[in-house]
Amino acid sequence: MGRGRVQLRRIENKISRQVTFSKRRTGLLKKAHEISVLCDAELALIVFSNKGKLFEYSSNSSMERILERYEQQSYADQRQLHPTDSESHANWSLESPKLMSNIEALQRSLRHFLGEELDPLSLKDLQLLEQQIDNSLKHIRARKNKLMHESISELQKKEKALQDQNNMLAKKLKENEKKVTEQPQCEHQNLAQSSPSSIQPSPPAAVTTMQFPLTIGGSYHAIEGTNKEVETQPQPRTNTVIPSWMLFHVNR
To answer: What's the pTM value of the predicted model, to 2 decimals?
Structure first.
């Protein structure tokens, strides 16, 4: 896996910055020497560190000679780019009539295109002017038709998008209406299934009548109203203790 690209920005760490400067300076001097040897070029390299220390390299010729040559060449280039006042004045005096004639020709052509000052023109000039106007109209109409087609195409795309959206909304509306219509039917069916009327009533139980013949100290017979079965259950005993006042009358 290769090393990532180094982001070019100032190194904040002072030690790392100094180490990087030393390494890059050595590499730069080495590259300068190589290009001067391989390409037979006069080369001068000047580097100042952040502390103001000077580092320089020059090819076989001396640094002063290269700098002098640089000053002469740069001065000549500046003269070509920025001539003196006298030279510029002479050039402007020559160029001014040409510029004025060009301006007059353009203004005259503009008036001709507007349909003005056509009397001095010959038949050939008028035909040429008409041809130029026709060509201009063709370009204008072609550009107008292109813009109209683009506008129509854009409107058709918008129409299609709106139609698709409308169809989707209509589909959702139908689904919602279907759900709304099906929901009461389901609720009605659920209510019909869970209502008590749907449960078949069980036959009423037979009513039995019980007759309890009273007997003192005996038993009673339970007789069912159906007269199919008679059950005899023991009668609970009653308290037969005679009060004392009754015993007194008996003894007398």
So the answer is: 0.33
Question: Which amino acid makes up residue 2?
Answer: G
Q: What is the dihedral of CA 114, 119, 124, 128, to 10 degrees?
A: -10
DSSP SS3 for 134: helix
**Tell me, what amino acid is at 169?**
L
Dihedral in degrees, nearest 10, Cα atoms 175, 177, 181, 184: 100
Strand, coil or helix: 178: helix
Location of structure tokens 């920025």: 82
Instruction: Note whether 210 and 222 are within 8 A (CB).
Output: yes
φ/ψ of residue 239, rounded to 5: -75, 115
Cβ burial, residue 28 (10 Å; 0-12/13-18/19+): middle
The predicted pLDDT at position 163 comes to 94
